[in-house]
Amino acid sequence: xxxxxxxxxxxxxxxxxxxxxxxxxxxxxxxxxxxxxxxxxxxxxxxxxxxxxxxxxxxxxxxxxxxxxxxxxxxxxxxxxxxxxxxxxxxxxxxxxxxxxxxxxxxxxxxxxxxxxxxxxxxxxxxxxxxxxxxxxxxxxxxxxxxxxxxxxxxxxxxxxxxxxxxxxxxxxxx
Length: 175
Fold this sequence. Notes:
alpha/beta
């Protein structure tokens, strides 16, 4: 099984001691991208404004070109920046954060959680777990999202992920 290369475009806006992307780079689990033009062509970019959800269908492109997260302060970001043409922008479906800053909050994932979720959804469950094992709270992320992650990983493509997300959100709304 091929390993998906992980990249982090670092804006250096967060506390370096709390920055999950910085820790991934320190432990050589991700490579820091120094500029927007140095992102590998064809990489999958995690982008909350993307029109398609990340899915198993993105695995082949991610194996060939990698998976990129933009590490920045989301409180300061008003619009996702244009990084480079020729990249596959993908959004993550509904998930809950487990990081200490945003525990239990929907869609407030750290960079490490975002990369781990994308890996899990693309079928790289072991790689996803290994990333989360770097953090005391990391395994909890997969535990509290396991049902969602399994449903998303079972979907063939982006529309299947969106359908799984809608079914789960409707089920929660009925409770």
